[in-house]
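Need tokens for this chain, all 155 residues.
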Amino acid sequence: MGQICEKLGEKGRAMHFYALAMDAPRPDPETRSRLAALAGGNDKIDAIIEKNHEELAAQRTIKLANAPKQEGKAEFILLLSDGHASEMSVDDVKFASGDEKLKAFTEALRAARYSQTVPDDTAVKVVRRGTLSCTATAADCILLLTLPSDVHSVD
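Here are the structure tokens for all 155 residues:
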């Protein structure tokens, strides 16, 4: 995407996509060079990458109202499928481990909106794992979907 934006003369968007790509576990060294060229030097890259770092985490974060004021952490497994207008919907939720009292959030996890999308009308099923974290003083619990590279089993 960065290269496409760069060819279209959209320097800001190109830098944004390069910065997101640099957050990958093993980014292509060429990406860093392209970002440095657009940013005006290697010394400016780290600040640009850091500025965009939170965006990727936000895309994996779902907030759920913590009306019962629960506290704890639990792992859930979600089965997502292509839904309406290419947005993913939840077919199934399974409590995997953690604080048993957070099982009460199963239906809220099923009803939540997930920002993950699929590019077309092709039937897709995706298994995702996430950690639900709640504190009694916070208005929302946070489900952070685990990066696929960090999942070693679904149990």
